[in-house]
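Protein in question filed below.

…
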Amino acid sequence: MLSKNQLRKLDVQDIAIFLSLFATRNARKTADELSISPPTVSYSLKRLRESLGDELFIRDSSGLLPTGRAFHIEPYLRSALEAINRSAEGFGEPDDRELPLELCVPEAFELLLLPKLMAQALSCSPRRILHMRKLSEKLPTEELLAGKLDLLCVPGPGAYFQLHPELERQSLFEDRFVCVARGNRPRQVTLDEYCDALHVYPSPWQSPRNMVDTWLEQLGRRRTMVAWASTYQACLNMLEELPCMLMLPSSLVSALRIPPGVQVNQPPLGCPNFTFDMVWAPGNDSPRRRWLRQQLLRICDKDERIGRAG
């Protein structure tokens, strides 16, 4: 059992990075020695400092100098790593295919792509394990660069989220919005109608804005939000009782329950389309991560509900 909860954040790679930094006094040499990227070293050192409550290494003209605390813990961490290595002797290297895949995705990914992705994962030998994490307002850039996260999915276009230059981005499919509200028949919603209406909004984070609000601001207009919910279906259910509108990705219409008396309308003219993009760190690529991206591209190519991005 660990004596401090902070230590639960550390893993074997953090220990290896500490010991290499202690020996080399140089972050670049550590990255080369362990065949990892420099951002991985930086991210791990940050975790070590937070977990152990000490700077551990102080930069000066000669490199990274260990603190007194670093000198104190070095023999203990070295012994721990040696013990871990001995425990694995005789069993060979772990199969990369058996490691879980960590994904950070919005709700649309889980509704559209996750069922078919899981079918592919279960057909593999050995079967792949997928962990879904909800998208938050702050992108998990450091975790991607450090190899703690395998794939991130975000809405496009690229200007909506500013990505780190060491991350790669590829569009999975293109989509457009539809405007959902109570009514007798589908119709084209005008810009004045849209801005005068009350709106409900599905947000995976605490921000009340998305690219639609940016588009309206460019026109000198705005919309009025009266409710935020964490899921699209919760917003749709509110439309049964409220005289409100919901902007919904067109691809999700067949994946959700549209309440009786609620119509799927065309949005105001000029409403922007968007892409659904995957983001990863090329510096931490691996066969299982490439498998994941290939499967998503194949799923999108075959799914008639969505249009593959060019």
User: Anything to note?
Assistant: Confidence is low (pLDDT under 50) at residues 90-94. The radius of gyration is 24 Å.
